[in-house]
Amino acid sequence: MTEKNIKIVSFLCNWCSYGAADLAGVSRMEYPADIRVIRIPCSGRMSPKFILSALREGADAVWVSG
Amino acid sequence: MEILKKPRYVREDRCIACGACTEKCPGKFDDGYNADLKTRTAIYVEYPQAVPLKYAINPDACLKLTKDKCGTCQEVCPADAIDYTMTEEKITIDTGSIILAPGFKPFDPSRFDNYQYAKFANVVTSMEFERLLSATGPTMGHVTTFPKLPAKPKKKKDKLLAEKRKDPKKIAWFQCVGSRDVNKCDNPYCSSVCCMYAVKEAIIAKEHAGKDLDCAIFFMDMRTPGKEFEKYYQNAKDKHGINFIRSRVHSVVEDSETGDLHIQYADEMGQIVRETYDMIVLSVGLEISAETRAFAEKFNIDLTESGFAKTGSFEPVTTSRDGIYVSGVFNNPKDIPESVLDASAAASAAGDALAEVRNTLTKEIPAVPETNVTGDRPAIGVFICDCGSNIAGVVDCPNVTEYAATLPYVTVAEETTYACSQDAQDKMVEIIKEKGLNRIVVAACTPKTHEPLFQETLKSAGLNKYLFEMTNIRNHNSWVHKNNPDIATEKAKDLVRMAVAKAGLAQPLKEEKIQVNASVMVVGGGLAGMVAARSLASQGYETHIIEKKDTLGGEALKLWKTAQGEDVQQHLSALIKEVQASDKIVVHTNTTLEGVDGFVGNFVSKLNTDGNTTELEHGIAVLATGAKALETTEYSLGQDDRIIPTLELDRMFKDNDPKLDQVQSALFIQCVGSREPERPYCSRVCCTHSVENAIALKEKNPDMDVFILYRDIRTYGERELLYKKAREKGVIFIRYEVTDKPQVKVEKDHVAVTVKDHVLNQPVTIQADLVTLATALVPRKDERLANFFKVPLNDEGFFVEKHAKLGPAEFATDGVFVAGSGHYPKPVNEAITQGRAAASRALTLLAKKDSLFTSGTIASVDVEKCSACGVCVSICPYNAPAFMTEGRFEGKADVNPVLCKGCGLCVASCRSGAIHLRGFDTNQIFSQIFALGETA
Description:
Structural class of chain A: alpha/beta
Distance between the termini of chain A: 26 Å
Helix content of chain B: 25-40%
Radius of gyration of chain A: 12 Å
Mean pLDDT of chain A: 90
Oligomer: heterodimer
Number of helices of chain B: 25
Helix content of chain A: 25-40%
Strand order of the largest sheet of chain A: 2-1-3
CATH superfamily of the largest domain in chain B: FAD/NAD(P)-binding domain
Strand content of chain B: 15-25%
Order of helices and strands of chain A: EHEHE
Radius of gyration of chain B: 32 Å
Largest interface: A-B, 36 and 43 residues
Largest sheet of chain B: 5 strands, parallel
Structural class of chain B: alpha/beta
Low-confidence stretches of chain A: none
């Protein structure tokens, strides 16, 4: 586990990556607790403004998956 | 009908699939889902995606049920779902139609002594290899030798063997194990799926293990007649470097030291080749088990000799007994798309039989009037779910609840043991009413499974269902951070804060009612189109068939017999009569389509009948435009009347042409125009068709010499029996290479065909009186029609369906369906199956015509901000935005709520910020980002 308190903002597509994160839970896969998921209806919904805003709010990284 | 339900020993109404029971369960048994390559606990769920996701106990492996010891699962179950006293139940159901879909059993190769599957550690079945490749399999996708040993062996002998484990460098697949074989087993048929899955496994194995993995597939005929399959096969050879070796390997010898496998085989030149492989995969066939045969006997339906259900080509999902239908491999070996088509077709056949009593058992739920919350200050209720110990065992739920109560606009924060239980739902309704809540947040499991449930609760409390936000503190938190409870608690707080911020901005959303015009337009009056129309008409829907020719019947009018020997014209004319006699079907012959406007439920099509234009309003469209035989001059076709295409031979048979009596030597050439760079697909129907006609010629005159020149014989499924019969009758099959095609020379007395014989490796010349060319089936490639409905065509001009496997009879465009050879070449029975399937899928929309609504989470345009740039109009994959053509805001964009899928592509690309995505609006996503910036 990381010592520094890292925050990764994750924009996950409802239809694939969000579901995959659900399955990771069902399979009890462990991973670092640094990500905060924002569910979006499709990665097409992503606007560069969201990424810039997340970084401005102190996110260490932004992850868009879809 | 009486059904026996075996006990699950777990109450489905209580099990929440948390998995606590499996952690402590001491009972073990073979994990069938993983091809027995590992064990599972006695209490188990079949696989992670199982529906319903409920656990069950195997009574033979459970210590409590076998020896009355243990009982741990009952102790640890947080939902009190375990019930060891459950017994078998007999359920009686009154049914009008029954659909049988019992599936198949993979062939068990242990009975073959030559491959020593049971004895040699590195000889595996394709099912076992499939699991080895899978990320959820026993090795998490890592292919290794000695896969049948336990991951951590306990026995000394196994431990020694496990030390020899390595990553394989050479893997071979042996095709037709348990298929096309009457010597070592009794399965004369082709299993239809093994060639493709072997190619797939080889490609994936190389992806996992790296390019230097040597993959070889030993086969007799490479059978890839499915849509896009031939290209996949060619890519496997050319791009992935898979070796295809046409040879049947006699036996396997194991190196006792290393476990490597030595084989020897004769190559195409007859030379003996010796090779050593690290692993051998047996491509096992599909078989009907003894249990399934016994099951079929109970229903008193006829089976073929190999155990498949007997069905006719014209009613391809109907068994020998009225009211009983079949689908899937039990109705002949088939791949996924054909199984899905079978399933839809069986539903259509079963439904047609019950059309009179439709909706007599339907019940409706009374609606609660909606409270208007517009303009009210947000009053948010937050419900934190413990999910028994699933969340509360890791996350400090009381702490999170306390925290939630301090957030802005939160009126109530409650902790609940199971938010999804009925009593918790009732309590939620009570709290909403009592405290006057107008926004609800639930922090629990995943919205993908539970959002609809909570939305129903909101509705029953009189709240608009979109005033709801769910955040996932189980699957995305407690389950994946169980060793870090403090961090998980902090994360849960962050997630709740983000959800509350978003919920505060939620607006009540409206779902627009979709008006569905309950009539259907079928384009194409061939077999598939007529079958679709007949099915829809029998369900009471007005159906219009648009046919450009002056008669119904399409290409089937030119066919003589089906693969099963049925007279096509006899059945076809009966079908045409039925269609013409139906008072629900309107046939428009000599009619073409000139234009289409509208969308699902509301199409207006322009028809042109002999120059007269009319408009047709319809809610649904079925495209069944078919395919036709390739016109070519290859092999001197058209230069001599002794060289004819397949359909001409059919005509001669149909008309009992006296010329056929003169024929002493007949020859067929396969793949004329198919499987070539210009048309890189297999036409699917030609092998069976030629074999069938060759048999007919032999039966007409047993002394006739009949030759078939082929590349691979692709008589899939039980069509293989025809191939066998043809060889038994003395039809001579000569294989040729595409690089060395037969030469046809027209002589005075005969046609001389020279071909290089693959056994002799010498050119031989055959003097034929009749040369039949199996010409490719080519689609009509109607780009205009495709544009009318905004549906895609592939490179060759066949329609592209919604999903190659799961949506084979529908388009991505809502309300438009596809059937017949316009989708891909197919024989009579498959065209009819797809016709029925398209009708069945159309019915799912037509049946809901009074209760079809759009989603509330769709895009809408703020016209004041819209600059009419047109980016949204050009970017939308669903054609939902369009420029308004009249009114005050003419020229600005407007989104059609029926077509919008709510993806948000237009919202993200709108440079004026004029488009809002309801439910995922920009301010809502920003609020989540900003909430994250604050610290708990």
